[in-house]
Amino acid sequence: MPLQKPKTVIINNTEYKQVFDLPGKFGGTLNLSVFGSGPKTFNPWASADNTSSTLGRLMFDGLFEDNPDTGEVVPHLAKSYELKDEGKTIIVKLRKGIKWSDGVSITSDDVVFTWNEIVFSGLESSGFQSLCLIDGKYPTVKKIDDTTVEFMTHVVFAPFLRQIGYQIAPKHIFEPLFKNTPKKDLKKVFLSFWSTNTKPGDFVSSGPYKLLRYVQGERIEFTRNPDYFVINTKNEKLPYLNSIIYTIVQDSTLELFKFLAGEIDVASIRGEDVGLVKKLEKKKNFYTVNLGPSSGTEFLVFNLSRNTVNRISTAEWFNNLYFRQAVSHAIDRMAIVDNVLGGVGKPLFTAESLPSIYLNKKIADGYPQDFKLSRKLLIKGGFKWNENGELTDSKNKKVEFTILTNAENTTRQSIGVIIQDDLKKLGIKVNLRPIDFNTLIGRSDSGDWEAIIIGFTGGFFEPNEGANVWKLNGRLHMFDQSPHKPRDWEIEIDRIFNDATKVVDFNTRKKLYDRYQEIAYKQLPFIYLTSPLRIFALQNNLKNIRPTVYGGVIYNLESIYKK
Fold first, then answer.
1. Cα angle: 548, vertex 550, 553; to 5 degrees
2. Under DSSP, is residue 494 helix (H, G, I), strand (E, B) or coil?
3. How many C-alpha atoms does 194 have within 13 Å on its Cβ side?
């Protein structure tokens, strides 16, 4: 049942955000986990990986957040907002008296600095900058007074209110860095600022926690921010928990073992482990929740870039639409669901995730595996088979390529094995190579790869959050990140994302986003695979846990406590 909406309470001239979870107990440690080799940075505006971004959200808040029950955009660091001029102008009021963890006031100067000096200047690394470019122009962000900021777009831009939730940086920390660094060196210096080697005491925080300690390759420890601006119904400052410790684990199996041993408090359960976990649930002191299909997308992607001398043949194969279609029709997605996800998931064929309110349901069910069709498509594409049954191209070169994926994710490795076996039946030799996640991201960014199995986190409410994947200048346009003459379908998708942002009416926007999904469905720059169900296991001593489809299980960290 949805809780009463937070309200603003003034105490000693500070406008606190009061939440209505049940009063809890102060103290204790929440033990969580992250996969891989650890964060690449503690600077969330320089982050390009999920681990660094996840940890950054503990330390830095934004003006708005999503209501976990409805998905509605609601004030957070902001106290309120007002829409003017058909939504082209947004006046945001910050809470008075709120502070950074070093005691400096959080003001509109921090907001304006974040947007103008970090986002619009191109220093941020997540690709967020490209989402804010509207017909070649950025919005204007200016200070009205210490607690009032005006955001203005030159045309109606439907996603902008949600984008204003972007994390705010402390101007008093970053501005000296900007002033003392030559412009030509600023990007490099900024990306190395607040690195994993920075002393924890050098950080300031606006979020519920501050960095306490980082033991490389082992764990990341956070301690409670005593001056956080969220309070409970007794007007006590939250969060309840004294600390949060993230243990770095190499794969899902290790995470599960640590959870069952009581070393981790929350674990994401893979489909193949659900049966075991449900049996143990009755014997051990934990419980599970099912939040439905993932909001992310899991896919196989081919490198379509032709700017290479090392991959001339694979570039020709991958740019052959018949080849991509043949591969997609040969993949047994139901086998992946049944054998890898333990039946706890669904096949995925669309660029929008299954729970997205913009899902194109006409194509969502896709098609079954069909080797006969795959063979016909390959013949149309100019491929043939030699006497040994090996697929060859028009130059008699055998079709062979390598799929990379992250070694920490055993589910993706298992998916790769099934794809490897399916394509072998078409005479295609696939080499599967798991590598460290950070190395994988580096390879992806450099263009040094042939195919990758990976995923995007996605969302429920706003396809434009994925615009940096689909727009021609997007940082995550990973199927062809090299300078190239855009394909007709790339141009059309780019135009759709531009047009859809200028429309407020949901039905009109949905027609546009339906069309982009149809193009992606046919052209297959990403071959979508499966959508796992989101199953979580939680220790019984965690209280104020209130799972929702949109929020997840621990979105209200400030209110969670241990009994």
1. 45
2. helix
3. 24
Across the strands, what pairs with 99?
105
pLDDT of residue 50: 85
Residue 191, classed as helix, strand or coil, is: helix
User: Would you state the structure tokens that stand for residue 422, as one six-digit string?
Assistant: 């399916």
Kind and range of the H or E element at 183?
helix 183-192
The count of residues in the chain is 563
Quote the CA–CA distance of 503 and 157 in Å, as a whole number: 7
If one looks up domain 297-532 in CATH, what number appears?
Answer: 3.10.105.10
Amino acid residing at 261: A
| Cis, bond preceding 239 (omega within 30 deg of 0) | yes
Tokens 């098609």 locate to 367
In 10 A of CB 87, how many CB atoms? 14
Give pLDDT, residue 313.
86
**pLDDT for position 458:** 81
Q: Are 199 and 234 in contact (CB under 8 A)?
A: no
CA dist 383 and 377 (Å) reads: 9
For residue 59, give the nearest of 209, 238, 222, 224 by alpha carbon: 209
Q: Alpha-carbon dihedral of residues 466, 472, 478, 482, nearest 10 degrees?
A: -160
Q: What angle do CA 61, 63, 69 make, to 5 degrees?
A: 85
Q: Rg (Cα) of the chain, in Å, rounded?
A: 24
Taking the C-alpha atoms of residue 545 and residue 558, their distance in angstroms, rounded to an integer, is 11
Q: Which fold has domain 204-227+242-292+533-562?
A: D-Maltodextrin-Binding Protein; domain 2 (3.40.190)
Residue 298, token pair as written in the block: 């899991």
Residue 480 to residue 204: CA distance in whole angstroms: 38
For position 42, what pLDDT does the model report? Answer: 96
Q: What is the pLDDT of residue 309?
A: 61
At 555 the pLDDT is 95
Among 384, 385, 379, 431, residue whose Cα is nearest residue 404? 431
Determine the Cα–Cα distance for residues 314 and 400; give it in Å rounded to an integer: 8
**Spatial distance between the Cα atoms of 525 and 470, rounded to a whole number of angstroms:** 10
Global pTM value: 0.80
**Which stretches of the chain score pLDDT less than 50?**
none
Three-class secondary structure of residue 30 per DSSP? strand
**What are the Cα distances from residue 307, in Å, to 139, 446, 490?**
34, 12, 17
Residue 562: phi, psi to the nearest 5?
A: -110, 135
Structure tokens at 499: 């047009």
What pLDDT is attached to residue 312?
A: 80
Domain ranges in the chain? 41-191, 204-227+242-292+533-562, 297-532
pLDDT tens figures, 404-452: 999 988 889 999 999 999 999 999 999 999 999 889 988 998 889 999 9
CA 131 to each of CA 12, 155, 264, 318, 550: distance values in angstroms, whole numbers, following the listed order:
39, 15, 36, 28, 22
pLDDT digits (tens, 9 = 90+) for 343-368: 999 999 999 999 999 999 999 999 99
Q: Which CATH superfamily is domain 41-191 in?
A: Dipeptide-binding Protein; Domain 1 (3.90.76.10)
Amino acid identity, residue 339?
N
**Integer Cα distance of 301 and 69 in angstroms:** 33
- Beta bridge partner(s), residue 400: 429
